[in-house]
Amino acid sequence: MDLPLHPKLVHLPMALAVIMPLLSLGLLVTWITRVLPRRTWLIAIVLQGLLLGSGIAALRSGEADEERVEAIVPEPAIEAHEAAATTFVVGSAVVLAIALAAAVIRNERAARGVAALAVAGTAIVLLFGYRTGDAGGRLVYQHGAASSFAGPGAPAVAPPPRGDHDD
């Protein structure tokens, strides 16, 4: 069975998108309160860079799987997921640029202000990630995208859950 790469790659950028708002806020607070030195902001930059890189890899792998899924999934649903993913990646790049700017600005007060803007940006990227995941989930669970990778003899779409639950 030829399993797609895309579902294997999407989890890292999504996990980082969830973690980055809290982590970057914590790093900024420790910077402002001088609990940790300013250079610890580099942790936020490295992780945001990892988020961007893994987001690009996930986007490209999705594009590679698109032709196989197009036979099953309506084009507008695929386009909605791709547009959301592109927004997620572009937003991640913008936040990385802002975080880098905070690291190189010499004026401490201005640098902290720019870092606060980067923290706010991570929350926005999280929202973009949610939209991307929601659109991807619709492809799989409403439109049966995963069935395009099912082996021979597998049902085209999983049967809907039955109403009678045996708890």
* Structural class by SSE content: mainly alpha
Rounded mean pLDDT is 90
- Radius of gyration (Å): 20 Å
Return residue spans where pLDDT drops below 50 for at least 5 consecutive residues.
none
Number of strands: 0
Biggest sheet descriptor? none
Q: Which of globular, elongated, flat, extended, rod-shaped describes the shape?
A: elongated
Helix content: over 70%
Distance between the termini: 33 Å
**Number of domain units:** 1
H and E string: HHHHH
Number of discrete helical segments? 5
Kindly estimate the percentage of residues that lie in beta strands according to DSSP: under 5%
What does this structure look like?
- It is a single chain.
- This protein is mostly helical and 167 residues long.
- It has helices at residues 6-9, 11-32, 41-70, 75-104, 108-142.
- The protein is built from five helices and no strands.
- α2 runs antiparallel to α3, α2 runs antiparallel to α5 and α4 (75-104) runs antiparallel to α5.
- It is elongated.
- The chain starts with 5 loop residues before the first helix and ends in a 25-residue tail after the last helix.
List the helices and strands and how they pair.
Blueprint: H1 6-9, H2 11-32, H3 41-70, H4 75-104, H5 108-142
Helix pairs in contact: 2-3, 2-5, 3-4, 4-5
Summed up:
By secondary structure, this protein is mostly helical. Helix content is 72%, strand content 0%.
What key phrases describe this protein's structure?
167 residues; mainly alpha
